[in-house]
Amino acid sequence: METILTNARLVLEDRVLDGTLTHEGGVIREIVAGRSHAAGAIDCEGDVVAAGLIEVHTDNLEKHFVPRPGVIWPNPLAAALVHDVQMAAAGVTTVCDAVCAGGYDADNDYRRAIFHDMVAAIEAGVAQNVFRIDHRLHLRCELSDPQFPEDVAPHVDRPLIALASLMDHTPGQRQWRDVAHLKRFMSGEGLSAADADALLAKRMRNGADAAAVNRPLAVKLFRERGLPIASHDDTTLDHVAEAAGEGCAISEFPTTLEAARAAHAAGLSTVGGAPNVVRGGSHSGGVAIAELAREGVLDCLSSDYVPASLLQAVKTLTTVAGLALERAFALVTARPAAMLGMDDRGRLAAGLRADLVRVRFLGDGTPIVRGLTVAGRSAL
């Protein structure tokens, strides 16, 4: 059936248009200025209507598999369904669910226990058509884990994989170059100071050696399959040069302005954390992502660990970085779509998928999602 959305602020690629959007059969048919007086037209009451958000890296799925330390939820699909609803409520229509191959601590990391079930749950939800939104997989490759190759091997040919990222959380470098900051983070996860020191020493001892072996292996695996590869937590010029030399297309969460500038200059798309924007800075001592936006070296936002942060960050960047609303929205729509090679979505244009989010921003910038459409069907 034809659906007409009118009296909407339509976020186009180059402007915001007060107008009317019509979609039919899961596809956008027409976008025109002004109001429609057709019978059955839906009055959007001046709300913003944009392309549905595209999330490239969220750890949110993991929270529902391990809702408390030491507790692994016994029904994987049920956990994935709750995650699906939460992403939809945040305005996301396409999500790359980050699943971790390997872990920080090969002997004790809970990620090994849930990895296969997380992959299977997403595949089952897609196969049974029970999700509200479109799900893909993002392989987070923890290269500092000696057991990484055996973890990733069964999954590299999964058809839902859209992206792989090369992660090295060895203490003393990249995200955790400030070891004191990492110790505070670990204490927040319930570790005593003595236990944290022991675990840090182990990670520092084993991580670098494992990463040196695993990184070229991972690059070879994913390049052979034509998958986009992201380098994670680039901090120095050498990190960016390494990523570019390996054929990475993305620099995910660069931790310094220097690295973001270099990545942008090298043709890598940069991804920044939306929670960083909302909070006004990094929780781990990295660069403020708003600074990357002001410098023009930010290509995409990811909600990372807070789904609702995407729309909050979009609005925040219009004030703290001076971005026009359409430019801020592009960071969560058109830019990630292009980065992932999804040319059927991410923009409001005739002929593209009718993936739409309707949102009202309150006076303080708080976003209220008032509607979500995925391939023409209501998802909320």
UniProtKB/TrEMBL annotation:
Q: Which E.C. number(s) belong to this protein? A: 3.6.1.63
Q: Which InterPro entries match?
A: Amidohydro_3 (IPR013108), Metal-dep_hydrolase_composite (IPR011059), Metal_Hydrolase (IPR032466), Metallo-dep_Hydrolase (IPR051781), PhnM (IPR012696)
Please name one Pfam family that this protein belongs to: Amidohydro_3
Q: What class of enzyme is it?
A: hydrolase
Question: Amidohydrolase domain: which residues?
Answer: 281-357
Q: Which UniProt keywords apply?
A: Hydrolase
**GO molecular function list:** hydrolase activity, acting on carbon-nitrogen (but not peptide) bonds
**Which top-rank group of organisms is this from?**
Bacteria
Gene Ontology BP term (one):
organic phosphonate catabolic process
Q: Which PANTHER family match?
A: ALPHA-D-RIBOSE 1-METHYLPHOSPHONATE 5-TRIPHOSPHATE DIPHOSPHATASE
Its name, as the record gives it, is: Alpha-D-ribose 1-methylphosphonate 5-triphosphate diphosphatase
